[in-house]
Design a protein that fits this description.
By secondary structure, the chain is an alpha/beta fold. The protein has a single domain (about 10-240), classed as Rossmann fold. The chain has helices spanning about 50-55, 80, 100-110, 115-130, 145-155, 175-190, 200-205, 225-230, 235-240; strands spanning about 10-20, 25-35, 40, 65-70, 70-75, 85-90, 160-165, 195-200, 210-215, 220-225. The strands form two sheets. A six-stranded mixed sheet has the order 6-7-8-3-9-10, with helices on both faces. Helix 6 links the parallel strand 7 (about 160-165) and strand 8 (about 195-200). Helix 3 (about 100-110) crosses helix 4. It is globular. The N and C termini lie far apart (about 80 Å).
Length: about 260
């Protein structure tokens, strides 16, 4: 009996390049992200993670290469591709003179959802993300954690196939972070795909089942979490893959000494 073929990748990034003047941010990056997985993109600051996610979601046009979302080309058919994704970018900008509830209602109608369905989903998301009491407050008055949660609610409102998150826990308090984790876990368990960018190895290790390590705009390791870490912690594997320069003790010998 012939084995069945594996399911197609949720996201296919092929030979992506992006330069900003003389600097190359992403250099021929190719990556197939498996459907139904919680995918972690990890790398040091400046590795090209945010640039890669921006190109994958249609926010930044690559100099070369292609992006497919469940077989739909992001740049040849952007409307169809973007209908299948939700995005929580780093430094998310919002309509701050709307309340949290109004922001969700506005996003839902932009997505073409019926008004009654938008209202139902918005109320459920506000409740699950512990934002019901703040639903009528202006977004301008939201804390960092509340902004992350309402941004996540807006990204999930249309029930996307793939959710892209760029540093979603940056500046978030532990209570809000735990709430966000719970919602993401439920979403991923339903068979949807989460693509999550971070430089915090411990967080990726707790949440993700598939990992890609990016350095200098290229993929240097990829695969299931256990394969990439190879019996070590992800933190130890990451440092070995990146190649951390050891301090020889001679630099900064003046720091903390007698004044």
């Amino acid at each position: 009996m012939q084995a069945s073929a594996p399911p197609p990748a949720a996201v296919v990034l092929h030979d992506l390049w992006k330069r900003f003047g003389p600097q190359t941010a992403v250099a021929g990056l190719t990556l197939d992200l498996p459907a139904g997985s919680f995918v972690g993109l990890v790398g040091p600051n400046g590795a090209g993670k945010t640039t890669t996610l921006s190109m994958a979601t249609g926010l930044l046009r690559p100099d070369r290469g292609s992006v497919l979302i469940h077989g739909v080309d992001v740049w040849q058919d952007p409307v169809a591709a973007k209908a299948r994704i939700g995005i929580l970018p780093e430094g998310l900008r919002m309509f701050e003179r709307l309340s949290g509830r109004e922001l969700l209602q506005y996003n839902g109608r932009l997505r073409g959802l019926p008004g009654a369905e938008v209202d139902r989903r918005a109320e459920e998301l506000l409740a699950v993300l512990d934002l019901l009491e703040a639903g009528d407050k202006l977004v301008a008055d939201y804390s960092t954690g509340m902004r992350k949660k309402i941004g996540l609610a807006a990204a999930l409102l249309h029930n996307p196939d793939v959710l892209f998150l760029d540093e979603p826990f940056e500046g978030v308090d532990p209570v809000s972070a735990q709430t966000i984790r719970g919602v993401l876990g439920r979403y991923a368990a339903s068979g949807s795909t989460v693509v999550f960018s971070s430089h915090v190895m411990e967080l990726v290790e707790q949440l993700c089942d598939w990992v890609a390590v990016i350095s200098a705009g290229q993929v240097i390791a990829q695969g299931p979490l256990d394969t990439v870490r190879g019996g070590r912690s992800l933190h130890a594997a990451f440092l070995e893959l990146i190649g951390v320069r050891e301090d020889d003790g001679r630099s900064l010998d003046w720091l903390g000494g007698a004044r």
